[in-house]
Amino acid sequence: MATPISTLKDNQQASDTPHPVFTDVKQRCLITAEQLKRYSEPSELPTDTRTAPDLDVGFGQQRAIKALQTALDIKASGYHVFAAGENGLGKRTIISRLLNRIAADAPTPDDWVYVHNFTDPRTPLALRLPAGQAALLQQQINSLWQQAKKRLSQRFRSDQYQSKIEAIKNNTHEQESHAYEALNAEGKQYDLALTFRSFDNKAMFVHPSQLPTENNDHDGHSPKASDSHISESETSGRNKEGRPSTNDRPTDYGNREYEAELSNFAQKNHMQKRLSQLTIALEQLEDEANDAIEALHRSIARRALQPLFAPVYEQFSAHPLVIDYLKAVFADMVTHVERIVNGDDEEFVTAVLATTPSRYAVNVIVSHPPDSGAPVIFEDLPTHLNLLGHVEQITQLGTVTTDVSMIRAGALHRANGGYLLLEASHLLEHPYAWQGLKRALQSRKIKLSSLEQMLTLTGSLSLSPAPIDLDIKVILLGEADLYYELLELEPEFDAVFKVRADFHDDVIRTSEHELALVAKMADIIDYANLYPFDRHAQATLLEHLSLQAEEQDRLSLHSDLLIKLLHESNRHARLNDESIVTAEHVTQAINDMDERSGYLRDLYWDELKNGQQLIQTQGRAVGQVNALTVVSYADSEFGMPARLTAVIQPNIGAGEILDIERDVDLGGSLHAKGMLIMTSYLRALFSQHHALNFSASLAFEQSYAHIDGDSATVSEGCALLSALANVPIDQSFAITGSMNQLGEVQAVGGINAKIAGFFDACREQELTGQQGVVIPMANVKQLMLRDDIIDAVNAGSFHIYGVHTLSEALSLMTGLPIDTMNKKGRYRKDTLFGKVLSRLMLWDENQNGEDDIDDKKSKNKVKKKQKAKRQKKEDKSRKDKRQDEKNNSEVTSNGEHDDEQNIDNNEVK
Known about the structure:
The protein has 909 residues and is of the alpha/beta class. It contains 28 helices and 29 strands.
């Protein structure tokens, strides 16, 4: 952890005279105030935007314009364009203006209409006409219908028509009467009469005696007679049982009666057949009458309609398909003249909000005024229906119906023969839109399909209009990342959009380009009806565009930012009751925009004021560095210092460096890469001189968000080397920079925001005149600092240094020489690297000393053990000796006793 400032006197001897190397590095790396910002010269700009030069539509985007022109010049399939570039560059505006200029001189495409197909009503016909002729055809058909219906109604109500119909009917009735009379006369030969039954008026033959007396006339049209007629002679010859008397009946009477009945039956049957033949003949006669009436109707219709259609035929004589359609309409009107006149059929009745029945409607899909050039269409809602068109349907009493008048055009129809612009991201948001567009461009035909059937898999009845030929150039607008994703995920994308037009974010800052950007400002001002901007306001805007480009020698081309600045600057001029916009108004607008996006930044400064954020801008500390970072959130971006600390654990490990941010998944891959590069560099520095007998850890203090990027590599190297050498770092400095494995400092992003962040922190804690920042020398050309920072640098209260190597950065931060070597090729002891090696060797010696002490202790312990063992052995030997002496004395005494006993024994014997 960082060494407190109060303990630094024990670790370092203060010197009033700076080291010559430090002085040399400080002078060499100091950035002057003139290098901190590039100003635009107002005298080289127009007096105000009203005198600005004309706008070049393709300014700054020559590469994209060239690619676009290549695609437009090639008529082959697939030469459509993907315009790649960041949002806000004005891609759509530039392309639209260029296309409008080209389209004005291009031929006007043909009109297209859909009409009813009388042969196959489910597949409406698509007719192609010259520009402006579609509306004329629709008007002529509407007029034909109105005149035809009126004229036909007059003809069919005329006395002449009624007399002809009566003549046909009377003629038919007369022929029927003559036929019945002739048949009745023929029946009388067989004693049969023709009559009609009362309940169904059916003709039949009966015996005259069966006819009613009051109606028994010769015409045969009598009511129904009795079914049988029996004579009195026949009844008198029957007895009570109904059988002939045997006494009174002759023997041949039965035979004669039987033969008479057979003859009567045959004659009646014959006449019934004749009646059936007559009925068929009369039906044919009726059919002929109907045919005559129908022929009369058609004849009347032809004579009535021919004068109406003749001028229309002549008007469209150059278009055979239109003539064929007109002839089909004429024939259909003649065929269905009765239904037209009667008005009892929905197909021949004008619908609501229409002037013509759908059967004769001319649905104008697309129409162009003559000599209007090619269309340029931008579709902001590119759904499948809006792109390819669709067929509407209506529901009446639960029945879904549609007709040719309900076909609706899509963007492809409107842009056919011209140019269609689409936002790629919007296109991909809608289901089936991309597939429909791709299919149309590949087939070069617009074919309407029912999206409802595709989605619901239903079999509802719908129209299938004939496809329309497609001749179009499609320009997709999107970011480069989306282009690469489409190339990877859509195999056919490159075959359809073969040309990529790259739009640049910025342009080189030259006098010519500054004037061109002023022309762009003037164009926006004229379009939005804003106040004119004077030359000082123009210069301020140009400087801000360089700040947005993060380069002194480049200008941002983001149109959205420029439009916002112009409108907000114009607002301040209007509030001040001024008629021209000045530099003060532009500066105020910039400050307002910065304040609106500075909510998070203000929260951080509040924490800094309250002491919750620990940032030290004075004094010195070991292993502690003020690193410069950039916080990005949505559209808000600001710089702020962050405390970076390094801690060393001697005699543990072999040079491992723990990156706490990475181990807790708060560090990105680029941050991890920078850490590994710095680790490799340090190992290469010292491993050849001494073994790395330590481990270390690095962390951004009070950082709880994700960290990525390698711009802290130099900061981490300074903190780690300070902790290794136990040399304090001047906390008046903040540092940023990337580093390679050779120790060279590389450029980083967001340099202006980083410097501004530390300057504000120093100003918050009081400027001492010693504070400053250390940045890569490669970033000097990107400096476009605020005027208050430049004023502080001019006054000597703030300093900016640019370094090429890590050694220069360390010298500025520590005040010491870094890597000076002696004649033996080893770092001098007064250098930072020499101090690092000294500490590495000291840790090694301390470790060896501890090992020697441990060895002496173990030897003494062994000696003590050996001495104790010898003593124990000596004690044992002395004990054994005493035991032997004791045993010997006992043996002697026993021997004397035995001798005495032997004597006694001898005596007993």
